Amino acid sequence: MTSQLRARLRARRWLVAAAAAALAVGVVTATQAAFADTAFSANFEDGSTSAWSKSGGTWTVVTDGSKVLQQSNATTNNARFFAGDSNWTDYTVQARVKPLSLGSGGFAGLLARAGGATTFYRLALLPGNAVQLQAVNGGSVTVLASASRTVATGTWYTLSLTVKGTQISAAVDGTAVGSGTSSVVAKGRIGLQTAYSTAGFDDVVVTTGGTSPTPSATTGGPSPSASASPTRSASASASPSPSNSQPPSSTLYVSPSGSASAPGTQSSPTTLASAITRVTAGGTIYLRGGTYAQSSTITIAPGNNGTSGATKTLMAYPGETPVLNFSAQTEDPANRGLAVNGNYWHLYGIVVERAGDNGIFVGGSNNVIERTITRYNRDSGLQLSRIASDTPQSQWPSNNLILSAESHDNADADGEDADGFAAKLTVGNGNVFRYAVSHNNIDDGWDLYTKTDTGPIGPVTIEDSLSYNNGTLSNGTVNSNGDRNGYKLGGEDISVNHVIRRNIAFDNGKHGFTYNRNLGTMTISNNLSIDNTERNFSFDGGSSVFRNNTSCRSGSGSNDKTVGDADSSNQFYAGTNGSRCANYSGALSWSFASDGRLVVTLGGRAVTL
Known about the structure:
Elements: E1 38-42, E2 52-55, E3 59-64, E4 66-71, E5 79-83, E6 91-116, E7 119-126, E8 130-137, E9 140-148, E10 157-164, E11 167-172, E12 175-181, E13 189-207, E14 249-254, H1 272-278, E15 279-287, E16 290-293, E17 298-300, E18 312-316, E19 322-325, E20 338-340, E21 345-348, E22 351-353, E23 360-362, E24 368-370, E25 373-375, E26 382-384, E27 401-403, E28 406-408, E29 421-423, E30 431-434, E31 437-439, E32 446-447, E33 460-463, E34 466-468, E35 487-488, E36 499-501, E37 504-506, E38 513-514, E39 523-525, E40 528-530, E41 537-547, E42 550-552, E43 561-566, E44 588-592, E45 598-602, E46 605-606
């Protein structure tokens, strides 16, 4: 939530390196041009740099949330790391770069067409908030374009450098730096470089726009792990199956105007349904921006799985927003939006709206659902539950991570079931919500309801997340049938030992955090609850353990109730505010940081829990 929170997982935010995760080697040049859009990628998750060659500097793979490459020698004037094929000509290289220090006269940058150690094109982040596109020829540097941009140490930037003939262009975070004409070098490898500076590098990808680079005689080294960049998929229910003439692929492109019979290249995109049946383990489906009008559920079927080392990924094309719109559906439990019933999938950057039931339904296991938005759906925006009533308990969804996701304005006709997020009725162990935001849903922000006819669900972890204004839609609609809690943690007097830590409940229509008849030993720690209509903390039974929680009110409200183990580290509300509440006043605002952490402010002050 704040800069003080420590993520255990930083799944890659752009995931641009995912496109080649299924390749068996670190540097591969394809022989079939139709499927050669991504020529190289590296995310350093396996710790290997065998596909790279060093020239100066101290280069190591370190942990910065996930694995990244770091150059740590601030005294060298020329630290370079090269990869790829010396015969590559026209391509785009993109990478995330985080300057850690920028010395006088120094820079951190990305290279293209490195014809040698001192001849290449360079996009450089410079001290003094400047970015330059440069042609470097030995000791001579020609500035082709420049721009004034904020360049701060400790911040990730996405650098993109395109070389096509004599035309050289560049962008930072999707915004053009400029372009120029140069004939300094016609072909060459990619590279990373610092001078009198230290920096981190991650998610390197080379794309060729559907044209294979010149074949290389060598393959370099092992491929980066696909675990951080899974493949993307779509459901076969939405459109006809692809023809048998279309082979499986590790990289496919989908657009709203794509054709099921198309090969799925950038220039000839396919449909979501076609892509989901063809993407291979470790592969990637890129969804181009725009609205995808869908009338039936898109299903990733059981058995359509990645693996722990080669996840399948369904992701937004970098810098674009795909919206899956299901407004043609009627409200019905059968009319879900996107059903993720396979295992080892990674969804990233997708909006799912107006489904007749759940926006995203997760019935599979070991999936990562990241940077998604579920909105205006007619049941819970994102829900984890078993696939069917006869699904054995051993196959209930387990070990799923919902990361940096938002869910809002989900509402059903009777107002009783549409939550922001739900892991209820039938879920297994190990499911985690982290850095998630649920607001303005007609029922609860989170619902972990369990009941007697299905038995207890597995323990769920909710951490570093925010729930506010639930029970009232953004347009002011309220339904008296809604429970309207921030975090509803149980049901039916069944004991489940959930972990609820470092979360905020703000101005929800009933309770902030409520046990809801969960008689288990939950861990309730470091949570902040403010101005919820009834109680900020409502635990009338069970044996939960409460540590370092804070409850505040700007007006009247009911006193908190906490049955269980609650010591003096907590500051609950019993008619007056405690001293901590001076830190938690004012208007609420929030955003996701570049690395996906949730940043919450109250009255302009960052909230630290």
